[in-house]
């Protein structure tokens, strides 16, 4: 049975019509691959169109202000991807005169470009015979060939890449890479795949051995840390508030947020008010129950506090201006709901 041929035949009949599949432009392929890391295609598609419209070329992206890039990225998460994207655009535009490196090994030198992204660009744009290995590829190969290697182990990527390379038609690596990723995304899905209609069901070892639900093997579990954020939603006599930029390493770097007090557990009014240095008229809790925001390795419990102050805030901004800043999506959603979309200066509602 020719695994690659069946896979490609299936792909040609079932593939989705995606804009980055209609081009060999490395800039657009790079954009799509960075955006689709840890992101569903349906979620990433609007961002791809927004970026290609705002920044048609790598020079446009390189010359953009970081705040504009982060604002357009808002909601995609993993914001280090956006910062690396902007940094790498500058490298391509100014150090490489707008030309992407044309080999897998050279592409790996770019910031934010790892094995998977380098392989995608090299094969899709330049026809280099190098396999892509992502979660979809792990799953398809592990099930079909009954590979029990823990995909979280250090040796897994090399082992699966070697297997994929052996299967890949060297004269058309791009279509094989597209096909195996699409097969994992649409047919050989993580939970409850419809094996009855699978074109590989007569030779899939996992199906024969009743192991479909058990493969691929992933033993390592990342520890999740709980963090408690208390956001101070200041309001002065003009209705202005405050935002501050998150500096340093960690989540949401270079995004904006309300002044933050982080505590070891859920805080009460006294704990929060004791840490506020400004002269305040009143303080009250906005959300009665913390908003839970889950990240890959952290679980955030967000409580918002309305803090009314006397006089005018230094560096205060209107709520209209506030909405122009790039903020984490959980804060954006809070702002939309709390301040309202029609009259931002009206008294906000509790929730």
TrEMBL record:
Keyword set, alphabetical order: 4Fe-4S, DNA damage, DNA repair, Glycosidase, Hydrolase, Iron, Iron-sulfur, Metal-binding
Pfam families (alphabetical): HhH-GPD (PF00730), NUDIX_4 (PF14815)
A GO MF term: metal ion binding
Cofactor: [4Fe-4S] cluster
EC number: 3.2.2.31
Family, as annotated: Belongs to the Nth/MutY family.
Protein name, per record: Adenine DNA glycosylase
This protein's encoding gene: mutY
